[in-house]
Design goal:
- This protein is mainly β.
- The chain contains 2 helices and 23 strands.
- The strands form 3 sheets. Strands 4-6-7-8-9-10-11-13-14-15-16-19-20-21-22-23 form a 16-stranded antiparallel barrel.
- A hairpin with a 2-residue loop joins strand 21 and strand 22.
- The radius of gyration is 24 Å and the shape is globular.
């Protein structure tokens, strides 16, 4: 469908019906809106900085590994995955005794109400993803702007611990409603026994400390990681060094079969990740790598190729003074694009060629971020994520090849359990056939944590 639009620059009543002129006008209009919103956000932040006395909200001791290298107020995730002595030392605030046992229990979570205005007709009304940005040649390209209200990212969890015995124990369950029909969805379900973790939670190479706080649910678009079932050994080797190794399920095999060869994707070796965290008084550096084997099961008469999946991740956080920090997360891999959140579900690991071989897809992702506290109650966060795939010619022409997404926000937290704020986000994606698209969105939220 073609939209008719008035061009005020011609100062007459002519109606533009020429497609190319209409597209140019749309892009210019979109850029002007995006620039205006960025200027408004920056201007608001400057006003807050001028009118609020900066308060040192992070004490010197609170950014030491012995106390918690990342304070609670600077975490996007409420619950940290501690094991061993770290679990014993953790302050289990809000918990109560389970009478008749040696365990304690806590119920947590949050309710978050969101309202957003999308300027570009992106395809997901609840999260801003690279892959949902319409590109030239798609029927959705040039779509109308829209609004949306929702609360489906609200969540709750149950945390049960026993820290008095020889082996500390923990049981954790968490769910949210971020599904297509707002039904309950399992996020985490795991047990901790000493230094072992068994169940579903963030993968070993999901380095959550490398993210600032974003309102958008998909703020970690180019983050390497996700949640999956696993068995992990995580040990604090010293005050500065932590080690982890695991066996993890491959949740998404990500093999594209554009030639419709009979068979199915499978894996014969699980993901085996290894990770080291090194911390100092004001920062954290995490380095990890993983390997796995992807396979295609073509049966007795079909192809049965294998492909090794490899990846390396370097991430961290550095505090600059007591009210500012920067973050980074860089990953590169072979046949591991599905582990980058922006590419999940797009068959980004490998392509099954016409001659029955698995052609691995190289991938790269970068996320940089920062936070600055203007005062005890006001803060701003920034994040930019970029993802790239070296796609073969056999890949679907409208599959995501590369793209970037940025976020900037202003948050107001009068109480530790209540936060409200506004966030502007912008992004672009380029597909395999070199089609390009841009998008922007603004989102506001109110969040009550417990």
């Amino acid at each position: 469908m073609k939209y008719l639009r008035f061009d005020p620059l011609k100062c007459n009543n002519e109606i533009l019906v020429d497609y190319h002129k209409e597209k140019l006008n749309f892009k210019n209009h979109e850029k002007s809106i995006s620039l205006t919103l960025v200027l408004i956000t920056v201007f608001t932040s400057c006003i807050l900085a001028q009118n609020a006395q900066v308060t040192e909200t992070i004490s010197k001791d609170s950014i030491n590994l012995n106390e918690k290298i990342v304070p609670d107020i600077d975490r996007k995730e409420q619950v940290v995955l501690y094991t061993g002595q770290d679990l014993v030392d953790d302050d289990f605030k809000g918990s109560w005794p389970m009478f008749g046992t040696d365990m304690r229990m806590k119920v947590g979570g949050y309710v978050q109400a969101n309202v957003l205005y999308d300027f570009s007709g992106t395809l997901d009304p609840t999260q801003f993803l690279m892959s949902t940005i319409p590109v030239e040649g798609q029927p959705e390209y040039g779509g109308r702007s829209y609004m949306n209200f929702y609360t489906k990212d609200s969540r709750f969890n149950i945390d049960v611990r026993r820290t008095m015995g020889k082996v500390p124990l923990k049981l954790f369950l968490e769910g949210d409603f971020f599904s297509s029909s707002s039904q309950l969805r399992l996020r985490h379900a795991y047990m901790v026994a000493g230094d072992f973790i068994v169940g579903q939670t963030w993968t070993t190479l999901s380095i959550m400390e490398s993210l600032p706080f974003m309102i958008d649910f998909a703020a970690g678009d180019a983050l390497f990681g996700g949640r999956t079932a696993q068995i992990r050994y995580q040990k604090k080797l010293s005050d500065q060094l932590r080690f982890a190794v695991a066996i993890e399920n491959i949740s998404t095999l990500g093999i594209e079969n554009s030639n419709n060869i009979p068979g199915n994707a499978m894996y014969q070796l699980p993901v085996i990740p290894i990770r080291f965290d090194y911390s100092w008084q004001t920062g954290l550096l995490a380095v990890g790598a993983s390997a796995a084997m992807l396979s295609w099961n073509g049966g007795a008469n079909g192809p049965n190729p294998n492909a090794f999946q490899t990846n390396i991740v370097v991430a961290g956080r550095q505090y600059l003074g007591k009210v500012t920090f920067v973050t980074w997360n860089v990953s590169y891999g072979q046949a591991s694009g599905e582990n980058i959140m922006a590419f999940a579900g797009s068959n980004a690991n490998a392509v099954l060629t016409a001659n029955g071989e698995l052609d691995r897809i190289p991938s790269f992702a970068l996320v940089v971020g920062a936070k600055h506290s203007w005062s005890k109650t006001f803060s701003s966060n920034f994040s930019y994520a970029y993802g790239w795939l070296e796609v073969p010619a056999s890949r679907d022409p409208f599959a995501l090849q590369d793209g970037g997404i940025g976020h900037v926000n202003v948050l107001y937290s009068p109480q530790s359990y209540f936060t409200t704020g506004i966030e502007f986000m912008w992004g672009a994606q380029r597909t395999t056939n070199d089609a390009f698209g841009r998008a922007s969105r603004i989102q506001m939220m109110a969040k009550f944590s417990f």
